[in-house]
């Protein structure tokens, strides 16, 4: 009986939480790059512009604090340009992730009656669905699928961000710091994701 009572309480709390939650969508870009350590044999690195689309749910904890679970499709990678004895060209890396994140959101100040300025801390865990390398040299271009036997599919890290809501609309900017090493070979070499996420969204 105690178990069933506890189960009923949990169902009631969950139902009440869902009843006071909001569902939303978010779309934007990820200005993505990769960090290499050591970078002795790496050329000039520049970011790529990746797509970032997500679904989210805001769960209020207090008047100013909420939790925001999110499910994203996000593209990460970079562009490396080289110029050596063998020639000059570039390698563009693009990896498509399905990413689960949970933002801890704190409202700093109100904007009107139904808006606010907020900051957020967002741990994330991503799984690479697919990816490719694009090689360009002396007018020649070739695309090759990424071998995930050598690059880990898992990526986890932390995001820091800020945003503003205006009624149901919101805009935000985040910096995502990847903490996992994507290098899955025996070579002592670290590859980490980095990204600046800029997005707009709507809460229903």
Secondary structure elements and their pairing?
Elements: H1 2-19, E1 22-37, E2 44-46, E3 48-60, E4 65-84, E5 87-111, E6 115-137, E7 140-145, E8 154-166, E9 169-178, E10 190-203
Antiparallel strand pairs: 1-3, 1-10, 2-4, 3-4, 4-5, 5-6, 6-7, 6-8, 8-9, 9-10
Describe this structure in words.
- The structure is a single chain.
- By secondary structure, the protein is mostly beta strands.
- Helix content is 9%, strand content 70%.
- It has 1 helix and 10 strands, in the order αββββββββββ.
- The chain has one helix at residues 2-19, and strands spanning 22-37, 44-46, 48-60, 65-84, 87-111, 115-137, 140-145, 154-166, 169-178, 190-203.
- Strands 1-3-4-5-6-8-9-10 form an 8-stranded antiparallel beta barrel.
- It is elongated.
Features:
204 residues; mainly beta; 70% strand; elongated
Largest sheet: 8 strands, antiparallel, barrel
The helix/strand order is HEEEEEEEEEE
Q: Give the structural class.
A: mainly beta
Summed up, the helix count is 1
Mean pLDDT: 91
Oligomer: single chain
What is the tally of beta strands? Answer: 10
Uncertain spans, ≥5 residues at pLDDT below 50? none
| Order of neighbouring strands in the sheet with most strands | 1-3-4-5-6-8-9-10
User: What value does the Rg take, in angstroms?
Assistant: 21 Å
